Amino acid sequence: MSMTFESTLGDSMPGDQSWMIDKYTSLVEKGLDWKLKSLETASEPRCVVDGKENIMLCANNYLNLTTHKKVVNAMIDATKKFGAGSGSVRAIAGNLEIHEDLESTIAEFKGVEAALTFSAGYTANVGLIPTLVENKNDLIISDELNHGSIIDGVRLTKASRAVYPHNDTHALEQILKENRNARRKLIITDGVFSMDGDIAPLDLISELAEDYEAMVMVDDCHGEGVLGDGGRGIVDHFKLQGKIDFEVGSFSKALGVQGGVLSGKEHVKKHAVNHCRSWLLSGSQPPGVAAAQKAAIEVLRDEPEHHAKLWENTEYFRKEMRSLGFDTGVSETPIIPVICGDSLLAKKLSDELYKRGIFALPIVYPMVAKDKARIRCMISSGLSKNDLDLVINSFGEVGKKLKII
Fold first, then answer.
1. Which of the residues are catalytic?
2. How far apart are CA 266 and CA 221, in angstroms?
3. What is the DSSP letter of 229?
4. Residues 6+ away with beta carbon under 8 Å from 196
5. Can you name the CATH fold of 67-302?
6. Residue 273: how many CB atoms within 10 A of its CB?
7. Residue 369 and residue 337 in contact, taking contact as beta carbons nearer than 8 Å
8. Cα angle: 362, vertex 367, 368; to 5 degrees
9. Any idea what DSSP says for residue 277?
10. Residue 353 Cα distances to 326, 348, 405, angstroms
11. Which of 144, 122, 141 minimizes the C-alpha distance to 132?
């Protein structure tokens, strides 16, 4: 007997959701729950968080482009001209000239044939990966510390999977040897790893891929605007233009806006346009966002001083923190972890820094291993020498108080 919608709605009882409360309570008891603070000003080196002035040390805004006049004005002008939204997905009626201009600018800047923008770096990964492999005869080989968006993209596929120890190219080669007969082989790695700030050996990975006829995909979200000549990214850093099949990036970090991008050959773009559901089924970037993205690329190209200052600040901060005795791990980039080990200790360090006007959040399990909790410091070009010295001195005082150093 059929049942009407109304009777189904009326007779149904809400499902038991007490498990959600139990899971959250467990996190609170272990000190692993997120407690959100409110940013009340722009994301700048000096900001107001929960009514208190702070030095920002946990934003991905490496080049401080979120407030760059050219970027902001581009967003305002395009919004006034084209409206707040595009009105459709790009495949139907949302493909604006401004989107095409943006992608041409990206491709020229990065030295590739073509680029395609997505709503986010996350949607680029979860949309692209399932289109590159089809069944168990295909193999994905992934670094064990790859970003969660890569993991989610892999889970959406029916391909066979292998994971190699972090940045271990010998283990990677062994997997490739054992799977020579796989129909398609896809190696996936982050470019810059977001928790430790180290760089993937993309040059060696590329050589192995060529030897074993594998494709390579790199997620360079934390390398865009940071690595390479003038911030062109990890592919430029290793001078591998034309040798990396799929380069995914982000506008929400060093470029200070929002959105993701895929760069590579023209046929890669055509493939993504026709097969990536996260692109086909998402409304296109609002005109203002697309204009700001293009302006950010132009600033990066025309004002290299931002990139140079970022690296000057990075090297100074890392050197001084290590001289104090802090463990900054294997960081090679503006992501500089201060490893504490215990999660509660990392939270105490963060709390003490906040009292001193430094907004630096702890990263704890399960985002990192249980014994690798840390404060993840994100250095930016906008931090002054005085800002950095204040932060370094505060870390020193609190580190001694908590017996970290």
1. 194, 222, 253
2. 21
3. G
4. 145, 329, 330, 331, 335, 337
5. Aspartate Aminotransferase; domain 2 (3.40.640)
6. 15
7. no
8. 85
9. H
10. 15, 9, 15
11. 141
160-164/185-190 β-pairing:
unpaired
**Side chain identity at residue 273, one-letter code:** V
Tokens of 316: 């100074």
CATH number of 31-60+306-401: 3.90.1150.10
Specify the amino acid at residue 231: G
Distance of alpha carbon 122 from alpha carbon 149, whole angstroms: 5
Tokens coding 339: 């490893």
Q: Where in the chain is the domain with CATH 3.40.640.10?
A: 67-302
**Cβ(63)–Cβ(380) below 8 Å:** yes
pLDDT tens digits in sequence order for the chain, 405 residues long: 444 444 445 554 568 889 999 999 998 887 777 788 899 999 999 999 999 999 999 999 999 999 999 999 999 999 999 999 999 999 999 999 999 999 999 999 999 999 999 999 999 999 999 999 999 999 999 999 999 999 999 999 999 999 999 999 999 999 999 999 999 999 999 999 999 999 999 999 999 999 999 999 999 999 999 999 999 999 999 999 999 999 999 999 999 999 999 999 999 999 999 999 999 999 999 999 999 999 999 999 999 999 999 999 999 999 999 999 999 999 999 999 999 999 889 999 999 999 999 999 999 888 888 899 999 999 999 999 999 999 999 999 999 999 999
Compute, in degrees rounded to 10, the torsion defined by CA atoms 151, 157, 163, 167: -60
Rounded-to-integer distance, Cα 258 and Cα 125, Å: 15
Q: Is 185:139 a contact under the CB 8 Å cutoff? A: yes
Through-space distance between the first and last CA atoms of the chain, rounded to whole angstroms:
72
| Total Cβ atoms within 10 A of residue 131 | 18
Every domain of the chain with CATH number 3.90.1150.10 lies at 31-60+306-401
Contact 232/241 with Cβ under 8 angstroms? no
